[in-house]
Amino acid sequence: MKWWRNIASVAACIICMQQALIAAPAGAWPGAGDVGRAIEKGRAFLLSSIDDDGAVRDEPAVDDLRYGERTAAAVYALISAGVDPSEKTLARAIAFLNKANLKTTIGVSFRACAMAQIADETVAIPLLRKDVDWLRGACDEQGGYGMLSGADGEQVSDNLNTQMAMMALAAAAGRGIQLPQDFWRKVERYWVSQQQGDGGWAYRMREARGARSYGSMTAGALASLLICRDYVQREEILAGRPTGQDKHISAGTKWLVDNFSVTENPGIGHNRLYQYLLSIKRFALAGGRKYIGGRNWYDEGARELLIRQNDDGSWGYYPQVIMESSLALMFLGQGGQPILMNKLQYAGRWNARPRDAANLVHWMSLNFESKGSWQVVDPQSDLADLHDAPLLYISGAGPFEMSDEQVEKLRTYVLQGGTILSESAANNGDFTLDMQKLSRRLFPDFPLKRLDDNHQLYTAYFRPEVRPGLLAVDNGVRLLLVHSPRELSLALQLAEDGSRPWFELVTNIHFFSTDKAGMRDRTSRDSWGQVGDFEPTVTIRAARIRFDGNWNPEPLAMRRLELHLARLHQAKLVVQEVEIAALHAPSHHVAVMTGTGPFELDDVQREALAEYLRLGGRLVVDSAGGGNEFSECVRKYILPLCDRTGPVSPDHSVYSLPVKIESVAFRRAYAQALGDKSREPRLIGGQLNGRLAVVFSPEDITGALVGEGGFNIRGYNHDSAVRLMTNLLWPWRDQPVVQVDVIKPLMGR
Hints:
Elements: H1 32-48, H2 69-80, H3 88-99, H4 105-116, H5 121-138, H6 159-173, H7 181-194, H8 215-232, H9 234-239, H10 247-259, H11 273-287, E1 291-292, E2 295-296, H12 297-308, H13 321-335, E3 339-344, H14 356-367, E4 373-377, H15 383-386, E5 391-396, H16 404-415, E6 419-424, H17 429-442, E7 448-450, E8 471-474, E9 479-484, H18 489-494, H19 500-514, E10 538-546, H20 557-569, E11 571-579, E12 590-595, H21 603-614, E13 618-623, H22 628-637, E14 644-647, H23 668-674, E15 684-688, E16 691-697, H24 702-706, H25 718-729
Parallel strand pairs: 3-4, 3-5, 5-6, 6-9, 10-11, 10-12, 12-13, 13-16
Antiparallel strand pairs: 1-2, 7-8, 8-9, 14-15, 15-16
Helix pairs in contact: 1-13, 2-3, 2-4, 2-13, 4-5, 4-6, 5-6, 6-8, 7-8, 8-10, 8-11, 11-13, 12-13
C-alpha cells in the first residue's frame, strides 16, 4: 500500500491571490489580484449552478449517455480552485457523484480526478478505485479510448477521450492506485501510432485522407506521453541509467512551440479553446515548464480568460457554459499554483529521476494546506524565473560544470534570498566533488561542512528516521546551500512505503529554508528589479561598518532596502562601507552595523565610535540571525558609550517617521516562541546628551531585509524589517530635542 494514501488535508490555498480587479485591459499582464478575483467569481458561478439534488443545472437526463459529465467537471474544477470538499453545496455535488452511474470516459475521468484531490479516504478512495477499474477495462486493444467502454471493440477510439483517461489515471497513481507497466506500454504505442507527420496530433488518425493536427490534441498527447514515459522507462530510471531523448515528444513539442497561441486552438480556430487551454496546462505542469517557445503560457492564458469571463463569472455560452466554465477554472486554479521548487537543467545528467520534484510537490500538496507546483529552469533563465521558487534543486548523476557567469547568477539568486539543494543521484561521487568545488566558487568565505545529526533542520517539522550526512554552507544567518552525498531522488521517484522518511527530510529542508512562509503565485513579479530614474524627496547617506568579524553576512540586504525606499518613499539611499576610524558624522548621519558572532573593539575603535556619536551621528545595530554572541558583544562594547539604555519608547519618531508602526510581525517560528509578545517591537535604545544615539535590535533585521527564509532565525519578518529599518535610517533632524522620554528604563536585563 502506498504510504501517502493515508495523508490528510487537501485544502484551499489557491485563493490567497484574491483581491482587486477582474478584467485586465488588453496588453496588460494580469496580477495576482486580477486572477484571484476571476477565480472567486468562477467558483461562485459554479456553486450557484448546483441544484438541490447535487447535479448542476442543465445536466442531461439520467437515461442520457452523458449523464453526470458536467457535474463531474464542475466538482473537479471547484476542488482545483480551492473550494473545501466539505463546503455544503460542493458536498452535495460530491454525494451526487457517489451515486451516479456514469457511462462515458470523460465523465468517469473527471470524477476520478475530483476524487484524487479529496483527502478523506473514506469518501475518495473507494470511488476512485471503482473509476480506475472502469477506465482500465474501457481501454481497447490498441491502447485508446472512445466515448464509452472500448473493451468490446464496438467503437473507435479518439485522442480526446484517451487523453482524458490518461489525466485521470495519472491522478489516481498519485494516490497510490497503480496500473501495471504493460498497460502503459500499450497506451504509449497508441499515442505514437497517432502522431501525424508534422509532429502534432489530430482528433483521430485518418491515414487515407489525412488529418489536421491541432493544439488541444497535441498538448494533451504530449502530456500523456510524459506520463507514459515515467512508467515505461521505470527500470532505467530507478537504475540511474540514461533514458535518451524521446523523438516523439521532441517532434510534438516543436509543433506546439511553432503554433502556440492562447487566443485560439491552433489548427481549428476558436473551437474547443477551453479544452486546449486545459491541455496546455497539463503539458506544461507535467514537464515543469514556465514557457512554451519563450511564451509564458499561464500569464498569457490567464489574460485571455480574464477578457473572456462573463459578468456572472462564467465562461462560454449555453449549452456548454458549465463545461467551459469548469475547464477555464481548472486552468486558472491549477495553473496558478505557487512554485515550491525549481529544478536546474544543465549540460549533464540533471534528470536521472524525472519525477522526483513532481512527486515531492504532490506529496507536500496533499500533506499541507497549500497546493503547489514545480518547474524547470536552466543557467540561462532570468533571475526573476529563479525567484519563482525559494528552493533551487540540483540533481546530478555525473560531472557538473558551470561557467563563471552561471556561477555568478546562482550566487546572486542565493544572496537575494534563495537556497540551493543538491543531491548525488545514484550516489555519484563525481557530482559530490563538483558540488564541493561549486560551493567554494559560490561562497569562498563560508565552508561547506557536515551538519551535526542534531541540527534543527532534521527536526524543523518532521523527525525523519534518516540522517544522510548532509553538508551545508552557513553564513551565520541561514543555510545558503545544502548538499546530500547520498541520493534523495530515488526515494522521491519511487514514492513507496519506504520513501516516507526521505519525503519528510526534503520537506524539512524546504521548511527550514522558507520558515514555512507563503509562496509566490505564478503572477507575482520579482521585487529585485531595477528602479527607474526619479527625483528623490530625501537622500540618506549611511555608512556600513567594517570590523574584524562576520560584518557582511547578507551583502544584498541594504540593496533591497534601497529598492524599497525608492519605490515606496522616493528616497535615495547611498551606502558607503567604512572602518570605524573613518566614520564622519557630517558625511554619514547614520551608520549601520550587523554581525553574526563574537567581535572585539579596541580602545581606539571605541573612542572613534564615541566621537562619531558625540558629533551627532546615529548608530543602528542588529544581530543578524538573532544570535546571542553578537548581542553580548554589543552590550559589552557599544551600549556603554551611552548615558542610558533601555527599550525605545513607543512615542519616539522611530515608530512614526515616515511609517507609522504600531505593531510588528516576527518570523513564524520565533513568533510562536514569543507568544503574547509577538506583536511588540523590541528595539533597545542608547541615549546620549538627550537624544537617541544608538538603536540596537537583538532580533534579526538584516536577514529579513533579504527575504522570509530561515526557520532558525530569531527576528522580524520581511515587511516589519523593511518598515523598521526605513524609520531607523530616516533623517530625524527636524525633530525637537527629546529629553527623558527618549527611551524607557532598562528593566529586568
